[in-house]
Automatic annotation (TrEMBL):
Keywords of this entry: DNA-binding, Transcription, Transcription regulation
UniProt KW Transport keyword: no
Region (Disordered) residue spans: 1-31
Protein name: GntR family transcriptional regulator
Signal peptide: none
Limits of the HTH gntR-type domain: 30-97
Pfam family name, one: FCD
Superkingdom in the source lineage: Bacteria
CDD domains, per database record: WHTH_GntR (cd07377)
Length: 245
């Protein structure tokens, strides 16, 4: 895949199909900083908010009908994920993420996850086996409902179970940090047609390998599972066609 670090990854992503898009504003009385963050995150990842654009706290608060406190919390979370830059005395601005940088992060993520899978196959205990099985079942339920956002959050739980099972706290912390950094893009690619089903099938193979104590296969499956989101990201982007008419 050709890398183009001078081009924003966000500008390459077309809006997801209308039926798959989450509500643009949560119901009144239920707006939380996490919900605001998710919506702003989606807008950044799809290019609706362009690199360099200022996030006006007051305008965002008015849009959601909340005080500036949850908005500030949401923006701080986006900054922690590397999607927003906080500039003293100026405010928060959408950060440009080049496609080359994005692919490099996916490559590192694949290596971290692969190592976690290999160690989990050797070290998983009965408690972690149950957690992994429950997370897989929750992913399957979300996929059967065809709810990509619900699947994404269950997918987070699935990968958390692998991190917990690997028995290496430092590795788990680094994987969680990068997972958070790539969240917006991993979430978006689940809206590609059939990707949820493919992801679920990959999850099943990963769990089977860990259950069998097969570290080599668990490592290979997890590496492939992440790289499909990175090395093939251009193909995933190309399949996200804007709604016509």
């Amino acid at each position: 895949m050709q890398r183009r670090s001078d081009q924003s990854a966000a500008t390459l992503v077309a809006d997801p199909p209308e039926a798959e898009v989450s509500p643009r504003r949560p119901p009144a009385g239920r707006v939380k900083s996490a919900e605001i963050r998710d919506i702003l995150e989606q807008e950044i990842a799809t290019g609706e908010r362009h690199a360099g654009e200022r996030l006006d706290e007051q305008a965002v608060a008015a849009r959601f009908g909340v005080s500036r406190t949850p908005v500030r919390e949401a923006i701080n979370q986006l900054a922690s994920a590397g999607l927003v830059a906080l500039i003293p005395n100026r405010g928060a601005f959408v950060r440009e993420t080049g496609l080359g940088e994005l692919v490099e992060m996916f490559e590192v993520m694949a290596e971290l996850e692969a190592m976690a899978g290999r160690l989990a196959a050797r070290r998983v205990d009965p408690k972690r086996r149950v957690q992994l099985a429950e997370a897989l079942a929750a992913c399957q339920s979300a996929a059967e409902r065809n709810e990509s956002d619900a699947y994404y959050y269950e997918n987070e739980r699935f990968h958390e179970a692998i991190y917990d099972a690997c028995g290496n706290g430092f590795l788990a912390a680094e994987a969680r940090r990068l997972h958070q950094r790539l969240k917006a893009f991993r979430r978006l690619q689940l809206r590609v047609p059939h990707r949820m089903r493919q992801s679920l099938a990959e999850h099943r193979r990963i769990v089977a390998a860990i259950e069998a104590g097969d570290g080599e296969t668990a490592e290979a499956e997890l590496k492939s599972h992440i790289l499909v989101q990175g090395e093939r990201f251009a193909d995933l982007v190309a399949s996200l066609k804007p709604k016509q008419g």
